[in-house]
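Working notes for the structural subgroup meeting. M.R. asked for a predicted model of this chain before we commit to crystallization trials. I am recording the input and output together here so anyone reviewing the notebook later can reproduce the run.

Input as submitted:
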Amino acid sequence: MGKLCLEMPAALVETTRHAAGDAWQRGLPVLRGLGVTLREPRLEDAPALLAHLGVEEVGRFMTPPPSTVEGFAEFIARAQREREAGQYACFAVVPEGATQPVGVFQLRCLDTGFAAAEWAFAIGPTYWGTGLFMASARLLLAFAFEQLGVLRLEGRAAVMNGRGNGALRKAGAVQEGVLRRAFQRNQHCYDQVLWSILAEDWRLQRSAASRHIH
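Returned structure, recorded in token form:
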């Protein structure tokens, strides 16, 4: 599948933690928040992921997702191999009350030991505007900065992808610039916006949210 270019306080997020170090490479933790669970994708999730992500609205501004159940099964298998190698983490997004995922969040290592990483996401159109993205993003960011020790987290979205850029901004990312002709789709090259969140930015946002709640 490649890159998917898509206000719950930390105190209310339950994160099932593994031991420190590389334990996540043996299996991702289950992250639970209000209204959503993030967990590692399973092979049996392939049909649901195809149903929610294999539609034109989702693939319009990103590398096209697989077009078959078999393609998603291979994506899941490849994600597990890359997780075992310590290069990549992919979480399936499962809304409260559901058993099958409606999207994915990804983290890819850009530097030794995940000091720098890139994140990407895709959620089925049925769940756009429901708050599912922000609930999931908070869980993923906590995992990235607290468990993986990420210092810099990058995200990219095509300039014309208003929803994707808006989502990154809402998650606390800072726009750093425009990458000219950085994304190719259907034999056309498009500009991308480069966004970043630093570990210190995230901690300040979390602290401010906690003070607001209390």
